[in-house]
Design brief:
Blueprint lengths: L12 E2 L6 E5 L6 H9 L9 E5 L4 E3 L8 E3 L3 E3 L2 E8 L4 E8 L4 E9 H4 L6 E3 L4 E5 L4 E6 L3 E4 L4 E7 L2 E8 L5 E8 L5 E6 L1 E4 L5 E4 L1
Antiparallel strand pairs: 1-2, 2-3, 3-4, 5-7, 6-7, 7-8, 8-9, 10-11, 11-12, 12-13, 14-15, 15-16, 16-17, 18-19
């Protein structure tokens, strides 16, 4: 057994895009959008803690310290760096921070106005390339950074990945039985190029497995 002292964070998830990093947070106010709703309702928002654990040695890093009124979203791994999403509610801004573990260095990748972003609901980082997206329940998909793209998708679709000029979505149906399809859309128009049955799984080495 190996003791990993996270000071109260008891659940770790694999960091998307990495073989060797896991991440965890204390979810003090729930997900990012729930913290935003609290702040908009004039409640004080305490920043959640965000820690990363390196496998197999169990080394813990907490590259960005908590700051009152800020809240972390879901991070990813991209080009050998950890990409961290954080909202600063008092300053009405969204930031993408990059942590280089080899250099023990944090730099800012991008900064956006929270007014420009709007709701933090389903505000997520993806790659490749690195991008910030958002998807509401009304069947709209938005890419907010580094380019701005918006188009309609089905209410039962979720974004998975981008490969050059193709965007990959999962579409599910529950009538008469539950089943999933892969929907390939053109970037940036959202035009459907192909639909085929299957469930999408991203493997640790980046392979995409489609279960049919």
């Amino acid at each position: 057994m190996k003791k990993i002292v996270t000071h109260g964070i008891t659940n770790l998830e694999p960091l998307d895009g990495s073989w060797e990093w896991y991440w965890g947070t204390d979810y003090i106010h729930g997900d990012l959008y729930e913290a935003q709703e609290l702040y908009q309702d004039h409640h004080p928002v305490q920043c959640n803690r965000l820690v990363f654990v390196h496998y197999p040695d169990g080394r813990i890093v907490e590259p960005v310290k908590r700051e009152a009124g800020c809240y972390f979203g879901r991070p990813i791994f991209y080009h050998n760096t950890i990409q961290i999403l954080v909202a600063n509610f008092p300053k009405a801004s969204i930031h993408i921070l990059q942590y280089n573990d080899a250099l023990n260095q944090v730099t800012e990748t991008a900064s956006l106005s929270l007014t420009e972003v709007g709701s933090c609901y389903n505000l997520l980082l993806y790659s490749s390339p690195l991008m910030l997206t958002r998807q509401e329940n009304d069947g709209r998909f938005q890419m907010l950074w580094p380019e701005k793209v918006e188009f309609e998708i089905g209410e039962n679709e979720s974004f998975y990945d981008r490969k050059k000029d193709k965007l990959y979505f999962c579409r599910w149906q529950e009538d008469p039985v539950y089943q999933e399809e892969i929907v390939i859309r053109a970037y940036p128009t959202g035009e459907i190029l192909e639909v085929f049955p299957g469930s999408w799984i991203t493997m640790p080495d980046g392979q995409i497995w489609v279960l049919q």
